[in-house]
From TrEMBL:
Keywords: DNA-binding
Residue ranges of domain HTH tetR-type in the record: 14-74
Protein name: TetR family transcriptional regulator
DNA-binding region residue numbers: 37-56
PANTHER family attached to this UniProt entry: HTH-TYPE TRANSCRIPTIONAL DUAL REGULATOR CECR, HTH-TYPE TRANSCRIPTIONAL REGULATOR RUTR
């Protein structure tokens, strides 16, 4: 019985946490980071102020949680850590997961909050980069390094290669959404964009790629 109650309390705490993060994200976007109080977030989330303060004593702590949860969603998914041995399959898994991640409306909202508040709160940009973008980017870089070391790819600069790959996908899935409110490409178009990015990477980094043509004399 005690175990059941404990599990119930954990589920209840998790639901409250999710409600707080959802309410905070919406309010930050609507009223700005500076214009949103923790008390207003508690009201919008339907929780007491003491409950909110217990989990998030400051707005900075709450924003950190928003960033971490936005970027680490599905972090334990097998697709997040493809095994080495098949560069095409690994890149496809990474690319589709990344497209799904940055294509969510919540991710575009997070970027909008950071961009809008950056002049007054540069620490929000640092949080977004250090807690979100950088760890994700590093995981892709490490995958490419592993394929290179295993002889499955020729990637002498994995940092640059990871930047190229994720950039190709974000340039189609995320960045237009920042400027075009009606940007909502079909799932098939997103799949095509990822597949094209994978083909481009294979053409550049697969060990059996065709050599570049020699320039004419």
């Amino acid at each position: 019985m005690a175990a059941e109650l404990s599990a119930h309390h954990r589920r209840l705490a998790q639901r409250k946490r999710e409600a707080i993060i959802t309410a905070a994200t919406e309010l930050f976007l609507d009223r700005g980071y500076d214009g949103t109080s923790l008390a207003r977030i508690a009201e919008a989330a339907g929780v007491s102020k003491s409950t909110l303060f217990k989990q998030f004593p400051t707005k900075a702590a709450l924003f950190e949680a928003i960033v971490a949860e936005s970027w680490q969603r599905d972090a334990d998914d097998d697709a997040a850590r493809p095994r080495t041995g098949d560069l095409r399959s690994g890149l496809t898994a990474i690319g589709r997961r990344y497209a799904d991640l940055v294509g969510r409306p919540g991710m575009a909202a997070l970027f909008r909050i950071v961009i809008a508040e950056l002049p007054r709160f540069p620490e929000l940009g640092r949080m977004q980069f250090q807690l979100g973008k950088l760890p994700y980017f590093t995981s892709v870089q490490q995958y490419l390094e592993a394929e290179h070391e295993a002889g499955n790819a020729e990637v002498p600069d994995a940092e640059s290669a990871a930047n190229q790959f994720l950039g190709m996908i974000a340039n189609y899935v995320l960045w237009p959404r920042m400027l075009l409110t009606d940007w909502n490409p079909a799932a098939s178009d997103i799949t095509d964009a990822v597949d094209e990015a994978v083909r481009t990477m294979l053409a550049r980094y697969a060990p059996d790629r065709r050599p570049d043509p020699k320039p004419e004399a």
